[in-house]
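Table S2 (text version). Query chain:
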Amino acid sequence: MILALAFGEAMQAEVVHQVRPNETLGGIARKYGVSVSALQAHNGIANPNLLFVGKKLKIPSSGASEVTYEVKKGDSLGGIASRFGVKVSTLTLVNKITRPDLIRVGQKLIIPIKAGSAKPASQILSSTVRRSLDAIRPKSGKWTRIVIHHSATPTDDAMNMHRVHKARGMKNGLAYHFVISNGSRKATDGEIFMGGRWKDQLDGGHMKSQSYNRTGIGICLIGNFELRAPTNQQMKSLEGLCKYLMKRCGIPADKVTTHKILHRNHTKCPGKYFSLPSLIQRISS
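Corresponding C-alpha cell output:
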C-alpha cells in the first residue's frame, strides 16, 4: 500500500500533456487548473508563442506556490520578472541573489506563483470608463479576438496618433479601437481612450490583414516595450478592459493575442518586455 501510494504520487507529479493542433498555453493551463506562468516556468518556455504540435509539457501541481525556471541565453532578471508577472525584488529575495546583473545561463530560479482570484472588470475599471463602455453596443458576432499593440514610442497620445493616421490616408483616423496611456503628454498613466472606430463599430486599421481588422479589437499601449515593460497602471487598465470586452463580446481568453503572433516575422510589436502569458493569467482567473 505504501509503495502504491508513493507510485501514485510520483505519477501525479509527472503528468505530461502533448500539444495538439490549435492549442494554446492558456487553454492547456485552464484544462489542468494551473496558471500560465506556472506552466511556462515549469517547462522552461521562454517564448510562449513558439509552442508547437507534439511538444510534451510537464504539468505542475495545481496547488503549487512556486516553480523552477532555468535561465536561458539572453535572459535578464528584469525580463524574467516581467515575463512571469513578479517583481525583480521578489526574485532576488527568494533566490538570494546579491548581484541581479550576474545571473548565468543554466542557473535555476524559483518563480513564486501568485494565488487567489483576480478582480472582475467592474472592480478594475472606473465608473466613468464603465459608463462610456456601456453606452456602446458592440455589433453581434463581429468581434472574435483582441489584438494588443504598443506605440513603439516612449511618449505619445491618442489624438496625436489620430492626426498621424489621418495624414497617412486613413479616412477614419486612429487605427486602434482603444489606446492606453503611460502618463506621457496629456493623459494620465493607465488612462483609457476610446476611439471613433469603437464608438461607431468600425473595422480597425491596426493590422496588415483586413480579415483581422474586421474581427479584431485593436488596443494600443503607449510605450516602446522593446526597451522597457508597460507600467503597472497600463497593465491594470488592460486587464480590466480585456475582461470587459471578453464578457461583452463573448471572446475567450485564448483569442486575446498580439500583433506579432498574428503577423509572424512581420513585426516585434508589442515588444519583448510585454508578457502575454502574464496578461492571459490575469484575465483567465
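Notes on Table S2: The mean pLDDT is 84. The beta strands are 16-18, 56-58, 66-70, 108-112, 145-150, 178-182, 189-194, 216-221, 256-258.
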